[in-house]
Amino acid sequence: MCGFLGLISAAGKNISREIVSTGMQYLAHRGPDDQGQQISDNWALGHQRLAIFDASAAGRQPFHRDGCYLVFNGAIYNFRQLRTQLSSLGHSFSTETDSEVVLAAYLEWGKDCPFRFNGMWAFAIVDTRQQILFCSRDRFGIKPFYYCRTPSIPFAFASEIKAFQALPDWQAHLNYQRGFEYLAYGWQDHTSQTLFAEVQQLAAGHNLIFDFKFKQTKIERYFHLSKIPRWKESELSLSEAAQQLSKLLSSSTEMRLEADVPVGLTLSGGLDSSSIAGLSRTIIGEQVPIHSFSVCFPGKDIDETDYIRAVARQHNLCMHHYQTRATDCWTDYSQTLWHQDEPFSSAAVMAHFGLMREARKMGYKVLLNGQGADEILAGYVRFYGPYLRGMSWPQRLIAGGQLLLHGGLDLTRLRHFFFPVAARVPLFSTGWRACEDQLFRRSPEQDLRQCSENLLGEVGFPVMLHYEDRNAMAHGIEMRTPFLDHRLVAFALALPASYKIRHAQRKYLLRRAMWKLLPPKVRRRKRKIGFATPQNDWMDAEQSQLTAKLHLAACQWPRLFTAELGPWAAAVLHKKQYRYYPTIWRMFSFVRWLETFRVKTD
Q1: pLDDT tens-place string over residues 406-440
Q2: How many Cβ atoms sit within 10 Å of the Cβ of residue 228?
Q3: CB 437 within 8 A of CB 116
């Protein structure tokens, strides 16, 4: 994992080394091990390195060969196999890094090289032979890639938005549409646009080509979730599906355990991270210690310590518990917001930030997690709707009864679906009114497959990947996601719905595939907690700060908020009307973001 910055200048204008160096300072946390720059007449590349493979100076970037210059962020897990293949085609290598393999793959296969990669990546290659810039982002958008244009810089790109502050004519402006969607619904990272009007992100599964001569950009999609075929029950039995899932997840985990530095785990005690823990122990063997890192909230109903201990006992893990308090949370707020680049919707982001800090203190630069399983194997309550819609009415009645009796369905979790826009919009001033008509909308999902595709590519999962990447990289940690191996995702999306939800159990197939690796209390769990925090309690502890900030916001940004915002927030917090707390949190975070990044709203 690393961070990079790239600039292409206007014709006849050189790029200042000072601009590049300043931009790299904003990204230094992403790569504390080394730094490299390459500045030419009309372009410049900068790279901050976090050394995971081959920590020698030979791995410094930008890499260059045959007129091509590479900056790379991510990990290619099959790079050794690709290296062998490329060697047989006449390529030679001087390092043991995956980055050098990426450049050789581009030289051999051109823009088709991403099809060959198993991993996560964002990279850019200046190809002086063709006078183009070739950029690519991995299939699921695990690694970030942002770009913008200014009057003096026709094209700039970076791993984080804050690096653009180094540009001489940079000015941040609010993207009103994205801002409205965040405040009203908590939507983020669901389009290529960001909350910064000037900045876009390269979408997951896309390549970008910038032509130096004509200063034109072309974006091409190379990966489509919708093109993955579907299987019928007659084509693959439930037992065969469980065996194949176990095989694919084991292969993915083994690939992601490979590194030249210590590798640890994040562990919640849920089905997903516990599965990765069990597979890791099976792969590594009993003699090698495995360290796990968890957030705990003693005395709270969301605390999962008992489940975590059960997993740790079964697989002989060295547990590390991070107990976060309200004071820790608010102390970390400003730093977390700075690293996130955009406002965030949950206190869980701050708890995760603290967990990453603790893991780094223990010397860990690579951690495996369980993200992605819920999206591809039907782990959320929201899957029940499309699951039932895919059935005939008699089947719906039977399945619906099973869900209510045995599925752990908590109707209070559906409340947000009935929290009307009208209850929130009066707090917004006239500057937002045009945004409501342009809302990101979709029809109800008709089956589990469509629900998975929407979660992976639009609302929900992309923002989770966003905050995990920024928090981990804030402390020089590479997060790896075994459930997002593209082979595993393709297999899971192709499966019949009845293999994912069965006997009122979500993620049924994963439970069956991992049965022997999970403690009984984990494999039989119905209640899903996720990465939860006592956010309501933390907000109650800081009522005065929250209320004061929103009072000030209504005065400072009358185009955004009405005068009723402050009194409304004070009343909600005083009465402990918890259903409105997420809205207050988002507004507070949004206002702090405007201040932190000096975002103009005119």
Answers
A1: 455 444 433 333 333 334 445 666 666 556 555 55
A2: 17
A3: no
Neighbours of 91 (CB within 10 A): 18
Task: Band the pLDDT of 41: cuts 50, 70, 90.
Answer: confident
Is 14 in a helix, a strand, or coil?
A: coil
Where are the strands (E) in 40-99, listed by range? 43-49, 63-65, 68-76
Q: Which of 588, 596, 597 is nearest to 182 (CA)?
A: 588
Phi, psi of 63 (to 5 degrees): -80, 145
- Give the span between the Cα atoms of 360 and 583, in whole angstroms: 33
Identify whether the C-beta of residue 311 lies closer than 8 Å to the C-beta of residue 274.
Answer: yes
3-state per-residue secondary structure call for 551-580: HHHHHHCCCCECCCHHHHHHHHHHHCCHHH
Least confident of 47-56, 228-237, 350-359: 228-237
Bridge partner residues of 290 (DSSP): 317
Q: How far apart are CA 535 and CA 415, in angstroms?
A: 17
Cβ neighbours of residue 476 under 8 Å, at least 6 residues apart? 29, 30, 31, 32, 33, 50, 360, 365
pLDDT number for residue 532: 72
pTM higher than 0.85: yes
According to DSSP, residue 33 is labeled: T
Beta-sheet pairing, 155-158 with 199-201: unpaired
Q: Yes or no: say if 593 and 174 are a contact pair by the CB < 8 Å rule.
A: no
Helix ranges (DSSP H) in 390-460:
393-406, 433-436, 448-457
- Domains with residue ranges and CATH for the chain: 2-223 (3.60.20.10), 227-379+417-523 (3.40.50.620), 535-596 (no CATH)
Give the pLDDT band of residue 390 (cuts 50, 70, 90).
Answer: low
Tell me how many degrees the CA angle 350-353-357 measures, rounded to the nearest 5.
145
Give the DSSP letter string of 515-556: GGGS-HHHHT------S---HHHHHHHTHHHHHHHHHHHHHH
Q: Which of 231-235, 236-240, 396-400, 525-529 comes out lowest in average pLDDT?
A: 396-400
- Asked whether the bond before 582 is cis by omega within 30 degrees of 0, the reply is no
pLDDT digits (tens, 9 = 90+) for 344-387: 999 999 999 999 999 999 999 999 999 999 999 999 888 877 76
